[in-house]
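Q: Predict the assembly, please.
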Amino acid sequence: MNAAAELVKSGPPGGIVLAPPGRVADNVFRGLTWVMAMFVMVLLLLVGWVLWHGAQLSLAKFGWHFFVHSNWDPGHGDYGALPFIFGTFVSSLIALLIALPLSLATAVYLTELAPGWLRQPSISMIEMLAAIPSVVFGLWAILVLVPWMQSGFYPALQKLLGIVPWFQGRIYGQCILSAGVILAIMIVPIITSISREVFRAVPDTQREAAFALGATRWEVTRLAVLRYSTRGIFGAAMLGLGRALGETMAVMMVIGNREEIPKSLFAPAATLASGIANEFAEATQGLYLSALFELGLMLVLVTVATNVVAHLLIGAIGGQRSSGA
Amino acid sequence: MSMKNNWQHRWRKVKSSMVSGLCLTCAVVVIAPLALLLFSLVKKGASSLDLNFFTQLPKAAGEIGGGMANAMVGSLVLLGLAAAVGVPIGVLGGIYLSEFGGRRLSWAVRFAADILNGTPSIVWGIVIWALVVVPITGFSAYAGGLALGFMMIPIVIRTTEEMLAMVPNGYREAAYALGIPRWRIVLHVVLKTASRGVITGILLAGARVIGETAPLLFTALGNNFWSHNLSEPINAMTLQIFNYANSPFPDQNRQAWAGALVLILFALALNVGVRIMTRGSAPHLVK
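A: Predicted assembly structure:
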């Protein structure tokens, strides 16, 4: 950095360089931007505090028991969060199991295999998928996807895998598996675009070296690209998981909203986010409301943890991003 | 030996082609839902887009007809309120990060913004409910706009910072050499040079929050008539789509499709706007 740039960064020493008229206005302006930047941190603390404060009643009454108790009965003032925790993790895991292989294969196709003219249109299509509002996914799922799966796909799946307990019992359309499927569709774009970036960051010399050893295209991808990107792939998966854990509207519309641990994947369930959205309006009584706030607190902690891990793996949090939002 | 090698070599090539085919299939499977969704949207939504849909209020459940006029206006009002909150805070905060911030503090602010960006939208709904709706305004447009505005901040602050950081230092130095006060340099030279990129970030944030439903459920609440006052509940496209999607009446389902089509077209228009912005002059400042 040269001297002039140094000056710009550190400000003029003692006002010798800068003409005096700007000094007060400069400080005011700088102070204003500082306040706005600080507001972001205040906002984060505020979110945490509001949830913590709202959850006090429930925290005091149930303690850690809240997390392992599986009875959620507003009628008798008994609240256990286990059904919601179970629903959240299982639906998100189903989503990840479906979305991760598909996304990785798509990303491989787009970076390593697709002809040039096909790349940009495909990427734009997938990015468009990311721009569709959650409630529109929910609308499509509830009126098109779920009826189709209930009448065609689920019975076939039950016939195929019916010996496994998870696939037994009555088939509901609005069930935890439907939630997993719609979540998978919703998190595919983010996993695909992050892993595409990760693959693109692999130096071409890696590929060239593998090619020079006589590797086929798949061997190049496996040895030079995928192995080189393990960390980034984990990061992309975590980011997708974080998105799935917190997703509300589409899930609430297809999961059936029943506050118990489902016996099979074809049975209705509830997630932390869908439970809050579905029951908040009914919660007139203090303890009920407090229990919902505690669900919110859990939801935030879980998504924050997932996102932090994801960003650590991708190496971006708090730092300059390598690419646009 | 050479026979065996030859066979092995062929198998490796076959395997490679098989994997290529598999990857192509996966790409098609990934894009298929989008195609199916858009197909349903156009097929079921387009036929319902008549004048009534854009000019009339929702009818009571079970009655045929009516429109989403109040919801469309409501969404725009909420977007305006959100921008009034999110844009100044986001842009000024971004200026701080790029132009003034020290290392540690900037890291903390970026960290907070990234965390807030990943916060589930339903959480914003209940936080604003507890913070604003209950003690101050009741269910109102203000509360809904505030929830959406807070959601815009992390996106706007990060893109603003990135865009400003791309302005070459020479611009700042040249302005300094003219004796211009720093605040003017930041606003009239740096921000102006990066304005396309900053506006792009604002549009992206707007496109994201206009599709949000969960933060509005317990803040803006929604209604079936015109709201004349920002301190009253207000309807939004997303809320109306949600209500109609769950309705047992086919006519309301039909209108939900139409509403979704309008919403998507609007979000798409914002995205196309972004594309056009980023293709104009000063391409070195945006990606």
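Residues 317-325 of chain A have pLDDT under 50 and may be disordered. The radius of gyration of chain A is 25 Å.
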